[in-house]
TrEMBL record:
InterPro entries: 4Fe4S_Fe-S-bd (IPR017896), 4Fe4S_Fe_S_CS (IPR017900), Electron_Trans/Redox (IPR051684). This is Ferredoxin. The chain crosses the membrane at residues 7-32, 38-58, 105-125, 166-189. It holds the Pfam family Fer4_7. Keywords: 4Fe-4S, Electron transport, Iron, Iron-sulfur, Membrane, Metal-binding, Transmembrane, Transmembrane helix, Transport. PANTHER family: FERREDOXIN-TYPE PROTEIN NAPH. It comes from the Bacteria. Residues 215-244, 245-271, 356-387, 392-424, 440-468, 477-509 form the 4Fe-4S ferredoxin-type domain.
Length: 515
């Protein structure tokens, strides 16, 4: 019963958290956005003390329930491991903990957090790693399915669905997502929760607390006959049946061992009520000498073939997503069917961060690069950075759209307070940058035609058109920018007809201010 409850809760959490990264409308976030905010690292960076204390108490009471139910990356590994288990039963074995690697990575993670190295945090954080996988690999298929439904609905005179562009938001982030997916899939396919118990810093922290949890699975030595069935079904490789020991720092409280024991020798009870030997959490030197057969032992032909098929499918999945994400929906043309050249990203001295992020320093210090804000940006403004210091963290650019003053989706979904919640009124008054005009690129000077596109579409009326020649009122008009009114939304940059570079672009501000 405990295992069924755990599985049901894990499936619900995993499905809804995945949908948070797939849903581009923001509807699901209104109901289940709290699931992202109760993830351990986002809650810690947001200084949400209540959630952090709640997760600590949960672990001290029941063990690493967080890892087996709430963490989407942990459940993802369980899904892969479950598929592998269909091909080969009883495939795990006990192995001693690699403590030096676990605590070494945790120390590096803490130093990166203190030093503000967001890229390293983003690579190691489990929630962020799964977010990149979902938003870069799963989301394109979700969007293509939506576009297919929109096509069919349109043929039936229904507009219940609308099409969306499917595009690659960042090559570096996409590549890291593919590598992460393949590495985690291989580790989970072969050895279950290897990543969680050797690399994941959140798993190491919670594992330390889980050693002192009140409820835990314990072995009744009077009933146990040493068959090893529990150890061969333990995806955390933490049950030493020879010594009747369970390493609770690695146990994720999945209850699989309890369901597999045929003699009812394993129970999930208060650990303090049993003799010390049965709840020992450390591994003695003699334990390593009594290790069960290694999981790396030669597999059967059937198992090897199944593994090759799985890895081939994963590779084809990644290549397919890479190729299709690079395909543009259509070639844009003007009224005369002349092709329109794509815009290029300008060289900005200071990157633009979203309204609500307060400053570049606050944003990089709190962002875990989970890509949740990128997923919900319907204006295609947010995309992962390729800069080494802010790698994978979102930055703004206006080649495909501009930051509409009425949209606050990124601030609504951010779980770490890297983008703090703001209202529409607040956003219209937050200056994230200012527009800069380049006269040598303006069509008024290059083609000798009237334009004024930037001034017509500026939502704050920060751009005025004035005669190019002050002494000739009838001369072509050029833009003049009032930087005190400009909020840096990028409407002027996006809608400027100059190609490939806009004649007017937005330069970011290190510190945002209210105007």
């Amino acid at each position: 019963m405990l295992r069924k409850i755990r599985l049901t809760a894990a499936v619900i959490f995993f499905t809804l958290i995945t949908l948070l990264f797939l849903d581009f409308t923001g509807t699901i976030h209104q109901w289940f956005g709290w699931m992202a905010k109760i993830q351990f690292l986002p809650a810690l960076l947001a200084v949400n003390i209540g959630i952090v204390i709640g997760l600590v108490v949960l672990t001290l009471l029941f063990g690493r329930i967080y890892c087996s139910v709430i963490c989407p990356l942990g459940v993802f590994q369980d899904v892969v491991s479950w598929i592998a288990g269909k091909q080969k039963k009883n495939r795990f074995s006990y192995s001693p903990a690699v403590s030096w690697l676990r605590y070494g990575i945790l120390a590096m993670f803490i130093l990166a957090m203190i030093g503000g190295f967001g890229s390293l945090l983003a690579l190691l954080a489990p929630y962020s790693a799964y977010g990149r996988i979902a938003s870069n690999l799963f989301a394109p298929f979700y969007q293509w399915a939506n576009n297919g439904l929109a096509y069919l609905a349109e043929r039936m005179d229904s507009y219940a669905f609308y099409t969306v562009d499917v595009w690659m938001k960042g090559i570096a982030t996409f590549s890291i997502a593919i590598i992460t997916f393949i590495v985690l899939a291989i580790l989970a396919w072969r050895n279950g929760r290897t990543y969680c118990n050797t690399i994941c810093p959140v798993g190491t922290i919670l594992g330390f607390l889980a050693r002192y949890s009140y409820f835990k699975p314990v072995i009744d030595t009077e009933k146990c006959n040493g068959c090893g069935l529990c150890a061969r079904n333990c995806k955390a490789a933490c049950i030493d049946t020879k010594e009747h020991r369970i390493d609770y720092s690695r146990c994720v409280a999945c209850m699989d061992c309890i369901g597999k024991c045929r003699r009812n020798a394993l129970k999930y009870v208060p650990g303090q009520s049993l003799p010390k030997k049965q709840v020992e959490t450390t591994t003695s030197p003699s334990a390593s000498a009594s290790v069960l057969p290694s999981a790396s032992a030669p597999a059967t032909e059937k198992s090897a073939a199944s593994r090759r098929h799985f890895l081939s499918a994963a590779t084809l999945f990644a290549v397919s997503a890479t190729l299709k994400a690079q395909v543009k929906p259509e070639k844009n043309v003007d009224g005369g069917l002349a092709p329109i050249e794509d815009k290029q990203k300008p060289e900005r001295l200071t990157p633009i961060t979203p309204p609500g992020s307060l400053s570049a320093r606050n944003f990089t210090g709190h962002c875990t690069a989970c890509q949740l804000c990128v997923s919900v940006c319907t204006n295609q403004v947010l995309r992962p950075s390729s800069n080494l210091m802010t790698l994978m963290q979102p930055e703004m650019s206006y080649e495909l759209g501009y930051c509409r003053p009425e949209c606050t989706k990124c601030a609504d979904v951010c779980p770490t307070s890297a983008i703090q919640p703001i209202s529409v009124a607040d956003k219209s008054a937050i200056q994230i940058g200012h527009a800069v005009w380049i006269k040598d690129l303006c069509v008024v000077n290059t083609d000798g035609v009237d334009c004024g596109n930037c001034a017509r579409h500026c939502p704050t009326a920060a751009i005025q058109m004035v005669p190019k020649d002050p002494e000739a009122p009838d001369s072509p008009k050029i833009p003049v920018i009032n930087t005190e009114r400009c909020i840096g939304c990028g409407a002027c940059e996006h809608l400027c007809p100059s190609r490939p570079l806009s004649a007017i672009y937005v330069e970011g501000h290190e510190m945002h201010r209210t105007i």
